[in-house]
Amino acid sequence: MWRLFCLVFVLVCGCGFGADFSFVYGGVLSDDFLSSCGRVVSRDVATSGRLTERVCFSEPGGGGLEVCVLTTTFDDFVATHTELLFSNVGTTDTALIEDVLPLDCDFSVAGGAGDVGGVRLAYSRGSCQELGDFAPLDCGLETSVAVHLSPFGGRSSDGVLPFFSVRGSSGSGYAFGVGWSGQWKADVRRLCGDVVHVSSGMERTRFRLHPGESVRSPGVLRVALPSGDEASGFNHFRSFLLRYFSPRRDGKLIEGPVCCSHNYAFEQQTAAMHVKGASLIAEHGLKSDYYFIDTGWGVSSTGNPTENWAVSIGNFDYEPARYPSGVRPVSDEAHRGGRGFLMWFEPERVMTNTYLAKEHPEWLISAPSADSLPANAKYMSPDFHLLDLGNDEARSWLTAKVSGMIGEGGIDIYRHDFNMYPLYFWRKDEAADRQGVREMKYIAGLYDYFDSLVKAHPRLILDSCASGGRRIDLELVSRAFELIRSDYLWDPVGQQCHTYGLSRWLPLTGIGAAGGDMYNARSGLGYHYVLALDWPHMNDERWSFARKTLEEVQSVRHLFTGDFYPLTAYSTGQDVWMSWQFDRKDIGEGLVQVFRRHNASDGRRVFRLSHLDAAGRYRVTFVDSPDRNRVYTGAELMGDGLVFELGVDNATYVTYKKVD
After folding, report:
1. How far does CA 586 lie from the centroid of its chain?
2. C-alpha to C-alpha distance for 593 and 495, rounded to whole angstroms
3. Is the peptide bond before 382 cis (omega within 30 degrees of 0)?
4. 398-431: per-residue pLDDT in tens?
5. Taking the alpha carbons of 542, 548, 554, 556 in that order, is the dihedral positive or negative?
6. What top-level class would CATH report for the domain 249-558?
């Protein structure tokens, strides 16, 4: 029934009866422009629970503009995803296309009439390499006051996540997500009572299309939230993303990678060191899935094999002094031990005096002058360059080069980093009537690059980093994991806070640990995990720590896809306990994690579980106190709760399973 409604809506909105998107063409609002256009409607074959309908409009009077509206609906959820495609099929430039908003609509959230608190906006900080990354942010919406959201510098989750929700006092409302790995914006304004206006798209669009050109807008998702408490609303959205916007292969969710990595300085690492590490990991029978090489393998631009790794970005050959045969010996050793192999790349950034800077400067966008850059971006001038992924020749070369390295190197997970602010490169020397075109072509090229690698290597898994979690958006979470979600590492309080904040929105997150103790190790638990240690120089105690850590990861990682229920408030303070629950209702299992921080004075706390079957019976397992294992009713767990006693800087967890 919902799909039928959406089809009727798309057909009607194209005739000027109130579309939920907007743009301006030649000074005319899109509703008025499209009502005069010819129209063609097509429907894709429904696949994997989703159906996309395309309505294409042709400019009247011999004009060359074609606008296609792609609306996707989904099984089991009241949700739509919309993006706009613009093409010039004529022989002359189009008129100006401005203010493209794939979402621009009024919504009613039930129960919102009355005071300010009756309608609430929930959103979250993004990644800034800080303790407070992904912190939950909430506010009441005052009438006629707009809230503006946008990232910093052209990476989609730099400073703010591209997910937010608007809900009334009954809990019903909408959650929104933006699919754009560049500079997006969203504006939320309460009009009156329970009516809220939401618009979202690229931050700046004002352009003409040349003959033969095509560009696409961001995709914007809206998911209707049922009435209920706040956690239930977030979990409804998490469940939607898990089903429709998470990495899958052959229709099945890809299992979160559990990786072992080396914690030596990048420039000191060698292939021989990694081969020894991979061999020792296998010899000790650690339960990891992949061996992980991060940066530092590129050939030096100065002849110094241990120069800072960052100055050689733009070279694609291996440093011969440290990787004389490339990385194939490492991947072969990992594969012999029954593990896959993960390797890092950063192809979009190009530094001065590297291969691409010298051989193909025509493919690069040079840095703007330092005077034109914000204070925290001035460091990019003059040595940073951006490889233009909107340039077909440059992207074809890069795809072939990296694809060849993946095959030759035996790489199973491709890690894609991006340590710069691209917005200022995209906008450099941008003509007044071409604003946004370079960014749109670049982002489309980025997605084509990722998809081409997977097409060439169907078993390949993608990992997106971007200075630690600064490209988290609908497009990338559907393609890739974020194994390092923030470069604020490896503080256990930070890892706890990041899990808390991200889990409001994302069903797949995790981080890991680099040394330390079980407090560190358990603070980084999640759906995926990276354990970074000095493998060739480990004593028995360290091997015991690694074995215990990875066994715990493997035993609980499947539970992190469940519903997320905070059992304490969010806090970055050292004087608190923090706790939360993940509940897999589909398999009747769950997990409760508990942390006591350094200055928390009370050594005993009771935590009451949430959203269980009161009449159900659950076998509870205490990982550190097996003598306490027993069966509880759901009513007991939600009423009396569970007692925890911990020393400072300590963590524990319990699992539960519903029994007949």
Report:
1. 24
2. 13
3. yes
4. 999 999 999 999 999 999 999 999 999 999 999 9
5. negative
6. alpha beta
- Intervals of CATH 3.20.20.70 along the chain: 249-558
CA dist list (Å): 31 to 1, 42, 331, 607: 26, 20, 56, 54
Report whether pLDDT(3) > 50. no
For residue 18, the model assigns a pLDDT of 57
Is the CB of residue 512 less than 8 Å from the CB of residue 530?
yes
Residue that is written with structure tokens 């997910």 in the block = 163
Over residues 137-192, the pLDDT tens digits come to 999 999 888 999 999 999 999 999 999 999 998 889 999 999 999 999 999 999 98
CA–CA distance, 82 with 18 (Å, rounded to integer): 15
Q: Which two three-digit tokens encode residue 438?
A: 């370079």
For 73, 586, 645, the CA distances from 243, given in Å and listed in that order, are 13, 13, 37
Four-point Cα dihedral 574, 577, 582, 588, nearest 10: 160
Angle in degrees, CA 572, 577, 583, rounded to 5 = 100
Whether residue 586 has pLDDT greater than 50: yes
3-state secondary structure 139-157: EECCECCEEEECCCCCCCC
Give the model's confidence band at 13: pLDDT under 50 very low, under 70 low, under 90 confident, else very high: very low
What average pLDDT does range 104-132 have in this prediction? 85
Q: Omega before 180 cis (within 30°)?
A: no
Distance, CA of 153 to CA of 270 (rounded, Å) = 34
Residue whose pair of structure tokens reads 């669009």 in the numeric block:
205
113 pLDDT more than 60: no
For the domain made up of 2-245, the CATH class stated in words is mainly beta
Q: How confident is the model at residue 293, as a pLDDT?
A: 97
Q: How many CB atoms lie within 10 A of CB 400?
A: 12
Q: Under DSSP, is residue 254 helix (H, G, I), strand (E, B) or coil?
A: coil
> Hey, what CATH topology would domain 563-659 get?
Immunoglobulin-like (2.60.40)
Helix-helix angle 392-409:328-336, to 10 degrees: 50
Q: Which amino acid is at 106?
A: D
Contact predicate 19/9, CB 8 Å: no
Amino acid at 511: I
Q: What is the DSSP string of 396-451?
A: HHHHHHHHHHHHHHT-SEEEE---S-THHHHTTT--TTEETHHHHHHHHHHHHHHH
Please state the rounded mean pLDDT for residues 550-559: 98
Per-residue confidence band for 5, with pLDDT thresholds at 50, 70 and 90: very low
- What does DSSP say about strands 384-387 and 642-645: parallel, antiparallel, or unpaired? unpaired
- What is the phi/psi pair of residue 455, to 5°? -65, -40
| DSSP-assigned states of every residue in 593-647 | EEEE-TT---SEEEE---S--TT-EEEEEETT-GGG-EEEEHHHHHHT-EEEE--
pTM, 2 dp: 0.95
Structure tokens at 454: 């997977």
271 by DSSP, 3-state: which?
A: helix
* Dist. CA 241–CA 334, nearest whole Å: 32
Q: What are the start and end residues of each CATH 2.70.98.60 domain in the chain?
A: 2-245
Residues of CATH 2.60.40.1180 domain(s) within the chain?
A: 563-659
d(CA 643, CA 326): 53
Q: Which one-letter amino acid corresponds to residue 401?
A: K
H helices present in 227-360, as ranges: 230-244, 271-283, 328-336, 355-359
